[in-house]
Write a structure and sequence with these properties.
The protein is an alpha/beta fold and 278 residues long. It folds into 2 domains: 3-155, Rossmann fold, CATH 3.40.50; 163-268, Orthogonal Bundle (N-(1-d-carboxylethyl)-l-norvaline Dehydrogenase, domain 2). The protein is 52% helix and 13% strand.
Length: 278
C-alpha cells in the first residue's frame, strides 16, 4: 500500500518515520516538520488533496475533532475507491461515525494509539481500530510498522471508545498518584524514591491492568474460578486503604479518591460489598 501521513507532530513524526521505506507521502502545514522525513526518503505532498489522491491509506494524526474534519473534507473526495482514511487522533466517537457516513467508496477507521512518544519512536504503540473487517485487514500490516499491538475493537467508533476508557484510567490514576504523593510528602517520604518504587513494581505486576481479567463487569458468580483471586485482592486492598486513610487523617492530608476507592473496591472487583469471605 502507498501510505500518506498527515500531521507530523510529537506523535505523528516518529510514527511516520517507520513507514519511510514503504514509499511514504507526507503533509504538514509546517515545512520544518516535513524536512526530516523528506531527508529520510519520504515525499512531501503540496497539499492534502495531492497526498490523498496518491495514497491507498491516509493516516491522520492532528490535534482535535475540528482539524480531523478539515483534513477529511479535503482527503475523502480525492481518495481512490477502496482506500482507507485512518484517524489516529483522540476524538469523539461520533466524529468518526459521521466521517464514515460521508463516503460510500472510502473506508474510514478510527485508530487511536496508546504508548506515548516513546512507543511511537520505538514502534511499540498499541492501536485500537474501529471499522469494517475489510478496512482492518487492509491497514493492519502498515499499522504494524509503528505498533506491536494492533487490535480490531469493533465497528467504526469502537477504537475511540476503547481509547477513552483507557485514558479514563490513565488520567484518574494521575490524580490518585498526586494524592499518594501528598500523603508520602506529609509523611517525610522521598517522592523521587516513591516514584521509583511505583514504576518498578508496576512494570512487574502490570499495575491496574493486572486485575482487568474478566469479559464483563457483572457480579462474580460464587463458583467463578477468579473469585478466590479477587477476594484476596479485595482483602488486601481494603486493609491497606484503611491504613492509608488512617495515616492521612493523622497528617491532615485530604485523600478523597482513596475514600472512594475503599467504598467501591468490592463492587469494582465484582464482589458484593457485604461479602468479605466469598
Amino acid at each position: 500500500m502507498t501510505v500518506g501521513f498527515v500531521g507530523l507532530g510529537q506523535m505523528g513524526a516518529p510514527m511516520a518515520k517507520h513507514l519511510v521505506k514503504r514509499g511514504l507521502i507526507v503533509y504538514d502545514t509546517r515545512p520544518e516538520a516535513l524536512a526530516p522525513l523528506v531527508a529520510e526518503g519520504a515525499r512531501a505532498a503540496a497539499d492534502i488533496t495531492e497526498l490523498a489522491a496518491e495514497s491507498d491509506l491516509v493516516s491522520v494524526m492532528v490535534r482535535d475533532d475540528a482539524q480531523v474534519n478539515e483534513v477529511a473534507a479535503e482527503a475523502l473526495p480525492a481518495m481512490r475507491p477502496g482506500g482507507v482514511l485512518a484517524i489516529h487522533s483522540t476524538i469523539r466517537a461520533r466524529t468518526a461515525e459521521d466521517l464514515a457516513a460521508r463516503s460510500d467508496t472510502v473506508h474510514v477507521v478510527d485508530a487511536p494509539v496508546s504508548g506515548g512518544f516513546m512507543g511511537a519512536a520505538d514502534g511499540t504503540l498499541a492501536v485500537m481500530v474501529g471499522g469494517s473487517d475489510e478496512a482492518f485487514d487492509a491497514c493492519r500490516e502498515p499499522f504494524g510498522a509503528w505498533a506491536d499491538l494492533v487490535l480490531h475493537m469493533g465497528p467504526i467508533g469502537a477504537g475511540t471508545r476503547t481509547k477513552l476508557a483507557r485514558n479514563l484510567l490513565h488520567f484518574t490514576a494521575f490524580t490518585a498518584a498526586a494524592e499518594a504523593q501528598r500523603l508520602a510528602e506529609a509523611s517525610g517520604v522521598s517522592l523521587r524514591k516513591l516514584a521509583r518504587i511505583v514504576r518498578h513494581t508496576d512494570a512487574i505486576t502490570g499495575g491496574a491492568g493486572s486485575i482487568m481479567l474478566r469479559p464483563t463487569t457483572a457480579p462474580l458468580a460464587g463458583d467463578d474460578p477468579l473469585r478466590p483471586i479477587l477476594d484476596h485482592v479485595r482483602a488486601l486492598g481494603e486493609k491497606d486503604l484503611t491504613f492509608a486513610l488512617e495515616l492521612a487523617a493523622e497528617l491532615d492530608v485530604d485523600t478523597p479518591l482513596a475514600r472512594l476507592a475503599l467504598a467501591r473496591l468490592a463492587t469494582g472487583l465484582g464482589l458484593a460489598p457485604e461479602d468479605h469471605d466469598g
